[in-house]
């Protein structure tokens, strides 16, 4: 998921430029922005589906001298599609 930060910056830049370029009289402005964010969120999704990455792992959550706690989630296709969309739209 190395594309999350560039995708977030592209989303912010595109949403700012679209609000400047397009007039504010559109009734469907929110709908258009959500569609744009959804389409941009498909980039990391496409990358993770193409590379068959089905496991999300993190750095050790709790570091103690005796043990380290690591968390990893194994996902099937449906949550893998759902996570980027929900993160970018919310």
TrEMBL record:
Q: What is this protein called?
A: NADH dehydrogenase subunit 5
Q: Which UniProt keywords apply?
A: Membrane, Transmembrane, Transmembrane helix
Transmembrane residue ranges:
6-22
């Amino acid at each position: 998921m190395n594309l999350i930060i560039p995708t977030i910056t592209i989303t912010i830049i595109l949403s700012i430029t679209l609000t400047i370029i397009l007039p504010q009289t559109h009734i469907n402005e929110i709908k258009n922005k959500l569609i744009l964010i959804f389409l941009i969120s498909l980039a990391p999704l496409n990358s993770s589906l193409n590379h068959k990455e089905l496991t999300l792992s993190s750095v050790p959550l709790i570091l103690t001298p005796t043990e380290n706690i690591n968390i990893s989630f194994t996902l099937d296709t449906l949550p893998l599609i759902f996570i980027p969309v929900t993160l970018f739209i919310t």
